[in-house]
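Notes from the pairing session

We agreed to fold both candidates in a single pass and log them together. This is the raw record for the first candidate, unedited. Please don't reformat it; downstream parsing expects exactly this layout.

Candidate A
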Amino acid sequence: VVKISPKIIMKNAGSLIPQMCFESWSSSPNQASQLETVEWQDAKIANEAAFQKCYSLKRLICDGLEKINSNVFNGDKALIDFGDTSNITYIGIQAFMACTALTSLKLPSVTSLGRSAFSGCTGLAKIDIGEKFSTIDGGVFYGCSHLETLILRKPSSVVKLSYVAALNNSGIASKKGYVYVPAALLESYKTATNWVSFASQLRAIEDYPEICS
């Protein structure tokens, strides 16, 4: 039987979490204990598959990630917290796929979300994306069945929706949720390519301060 401490503290480990560093740790029910928390205070970049298939991982404690590469948390169904999200600019392909315990995220600095970044995050109900973000790519929110609040704050132009399928099987596609955008762009969103399919689900940020504040 493999014994794993439920918390690992990485001291003076640098700003880079290496590729596949913790991949598949605590992935087996036969282990005597499960890895639940990794504290890596200096982490700025998490490389590919760093925590992939860490099924019991709940928290990554750090002062502020900036870049989360592909598959970093893929399959981490217990993940609820991955540190300060205010500095994150990039989230790679399938980075959070099937992270079913995530419920709400605020990403004020993000500029890019990779394909299927949040696909299968069935618990994700709200995501608030800042002013620097410009494109929703294929499958980003596919299967986010409880996604009822998507806030897009870019003030200067419509955020491009590359494919309608990016929101397939989401709470928004099933008309249980809404997309909130700047009031000045609301009518443009309603006629924009692919967004026209969700015209009835579009709302102005300014009209819903209790949700968008």
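Candidate B (folded immediately after A)
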Amino acid sequence: MTTTEINQLDAWIDANFDQEVQFLQALVRVPTDTPPGNNTPHALRTAQLLQAFGFAAEQHEVPAQVVSAAGLESITKLVVRRKYGEGKTIGLNAHGDVVPPGEGWTHDPYGGEVADGKLYGRAAAVSKCDFATFTFATRAIETLKRPLKGSVELYFTYDEEFGGELGPGWLLDKGIVKPDLLLAAGFSYQVVTAHNGCLQMEVTVHGKMGHAAVPDTAVDALQAANKILTALYEQNTLFKQVTSKVKGITHPYLNVGLIQGGTNTNVVPGTVVLKLDRRMIPEENPAEVEANLRQLIADAVADSAGITIDIKRLLMAHALAPLAGNQPLVQALCKHATAVFGETIEGSGTPLYTDARLFSEQGIPAVLYGCGPRTVLESNAKRADEHIDLEDLRRATKVVARTLAQLLE
């Protein structure tokens, strides 16, 4: 790719940047809170906006009964195919669903407000911003005055917050998409080549409800649950002795994110439910992690008379490990990101888990890069006042456009 072509791409992105910001604002203004997970309206609005650019979006709706069984309301995924000639197909995937806004906002979470060079709103950073990055990078390469070899496909999906199986997983399982390389939405300056896995489980502790005045007539499920919690949290001390070899990833971690139980203050709890999240480093075996965790929970209440437990797996997201074929994408992204940002940008891992793993499991080399701050914390992702720096959006769009143009030479 020549210097003239690089300058042409950058100039087009600069000239159309206000339109890119407006595109992102329009996406933020359609809520995609998951739960409840009513995401089809956002997909339809996105398709309408894409049509204005001449991008026809295939609409793939997941059957209602399947969506309902997953605890969601509606999912429609979009696929945009731009074929330029014979050659490799590069898929670009970003997800539109996001956790509800929560408390503490000083900006309208659905306003798309721009203030002090930042665009605020739920999903502005994770990852509606990359709907914009990927769309405008693709539009930019189509202005080049030379033929491109291969195809670019945009996958705008929903269900990442619930694991991705009804998002990219559904498209892959149905054979609707199968790119040669996959670029997934990013959330930092780094080019992410690996990430943690995640096991989520629901543990129901059954005792016997009774009056607090005569506790001997009951079996306290909360006391038993406390034994489980103590055993679980002791694991985090042990996990710190385990170190991943992947840059950017430290050690495994376990979090109990939700506890439900009891009926009233004067009633001995008969049932307590715990929901836990176990992050797995790439070196761990997911089956062994689950088996060990189930055994740990059972052992914790083995001497608790009258207590039984049910354990249900909610999610098993495997870690993303680098596949050998990802090097052209990694090298191009690092090269152009370093040039655009004026600092060394390298490949690294992240402790998060993403939809990219679903492509990797199908043998498709997947890398994460897109619009993001230096760290996830800076963007307030999944917290109040989530935002994206507009200069990061501009620069990331240039990096992706340059990378696509290079790979499609």
